[in-house]
Specification:
Strand 4 and strand 5 form a beta hairpin. It contains 13 helices and 18 strands. By secondary structure, the protein is of the alpha+beta class. One of its GO terms (molecular function) is catalytic activity, acting on a protein.
Length: 430
């Protein structure tokens, strides 16, 4: 019977065969312990000299790290390991020997590991992070499908930009100028006018020369857009979505969270609703905490966001930012034209903004004025202006950054660990 490691629980006391790689090993004179992986999970194989042929025991002792092989043996319960099962090995059939594998069990520098990212992904820690990333993706589809959203795929090559072109990658589209998308939002607004509630999930690009632990050049965004939704309605969707993601990870990735040493008691508190604080009150809070450098009208940096988040046990919405620091498509607050109807969701523990969202302008005259005010090319945005011209309605949307969310839930220090092959300011390899 050929199985995978994650099926071991269903084959206790049965003899099975699994295709694996050797992650690590240790041995004494009479027993060899093989740390094996097959892509689904990690499991220990125990080779007892007295219970196997001499050739098999010597093979177990001499195999090198990342050698691939078929291993045959009996699945047994193992209460000492987090996985809960191990194999009493009876046979080994080598598929391909690996020699001089560069990533050994010793400590390696970050740059070395990033240069070998194609191999680093095989490690226990990286495997756990990618499994949690996958669960967040799976749960995202479950949540939005359950809530009646339609998935729409916006283009990656665009002729205009939702937030200006200063941080976009420029390319030639035959004889025209084009850009790699920094957001699918404008296209999702068009889709919302056709389908009501939509979401996209795809790669986005920012030509931002930043080296912080929160930034990537290429990253993935989940961007829902909802017709007939005001800001307060959108905030409710956002907090329910994030709470659903956290619960899904807690329910389905307990082993991975334990492997990463993540404090799950913190995550267990992430139940909706989440607290809300206006930008104006957030500035007051920061000044009370000794941040005398921040003035009303300035955007928050990472230290400011962390200080605000530290005042709450859950993610916190910062709402009603100054009009001057937000994009053109955000409408003014009817009660205070100096601020716009928007919110950022700040994660706890110093992980910063994981969601940015707002209502969108649906009044044609206001939209035209704002496009002019921002110095944007009206012709380039003519299709977007059509949305306000032909039966627009109040609508809202948001974008959740997948990698920042993975970093928060896994406790990863840097977002470079939360995407399979990160693109950073000075890294395009591998």
């Amino acid at each position: 019977m050929k199985i995978t490691i994650n099926q071991a629980k269903d084959y206790v006391n049965q003899e099975v065969t699994i295709g694996v790689w050797l992650a690590n090993k240790r041995s004494s004179g009479k027993i060899a312990f093989l740390q094996m992986r097959d892509g689904t999970a990690f499991m220990q194989g125990v080779v007892v000299k007295a219970e196997v042929e001499e050739e098999i025991f010597q093979l177990a002792k001499s195999m090198t790290q990342e050698t691939s092989f078929y291993v045959t043996g009996t699945i047994q319960e193992d209460t000492r390991s987090p996985f809960g099962y191990e194999m009493a090995v009876k046979g080994i059939q080598v598929i391909a020997e690996a020699h001089d594998y560069p990533i050994t069990p010793k400590e390696h520098g970050t740059e070395f590991l990033m240069d070998h990212r194609h191999l680093w992904l095989r490690s226990n820690r990286q495997h756990a992070i990618m499994k949690i990333r996958n669960e967040i993706i799976r749960a995202t589809y479950e949540f939005f499908n359950r809530e009646g959203f339609i998935k729409i795929d916006p283009p990656i090559l665009t002729g205009s930009a939702p937030e200006g072109t200063t941080e976009l990658f420029h390319t030639k589209y035959f004889e025209e100028d084009a850009y790699l998308s920094q957001s699918g939002q404008l296209y999702m607004e068009a889709a919302a006018m056709a389908f009501g509630k939509v979401f996209s999930f795809g790669p986005t690009f920012r030509a931002e020369k930043s080296k912080t632990r929160r930034h990537l050049i290429e990253f993935w965004m989940i961007e829902p857009e909802m017709a007939f939704y005001e800001l307060k309605d959108s905030l409710e969707v956002q907090e329910n979505y994030v709470a659903f993601l956290v619960k899904s990870v807690l329910d389905h990735c307990a082993l991975e969270l334990e492997r990463l040493g993540r404090d799950t008691t913190v995550l267990e508190k992430m139940i909706a609703p989440f607290p809300r604080i206006t930008y104006t009150d957030a500035v007051k809070l920061l000044k009370e905490k000794g941040f005398d450098d921040i003035e009303w009208g300035e955007d928050f940096g990472a230290p400011h966001e962390t200080a605000i988040a530290d005042s709450f046990e859950k993610p916190v919405f910062i709402t009603h930012y100054p009009k001057g620091i937000k994009p053109f498509y955000m409408p003014e607050d009817p009660e205070n034209p100096d601020v716009v109807l928007c919110a950022d969701l700040i994660a706890p523990e110093g992980y910063g903004e994981i969601i940015g969202g707002s209502e969108r302008i649906h009044d044609l005259d206001v939209l035209l004025e704002r496009i002019k005010e921002f110095g944007l090319d009206e012709e380039a945005y003519s299709w977007y202006i059509d949305l306000a011209r032909y039966g627009s309605v109040p609508h809202s949307g948001f974008g959740l950054g997948l990698e920042r969310t993975v970093a928060w839930l896994t406790g990863a220090e840097h977002v470079r660990e939360t995407i399979p092959f990160p693109r950073l300011l000075n890294r395009l390899y591998p």
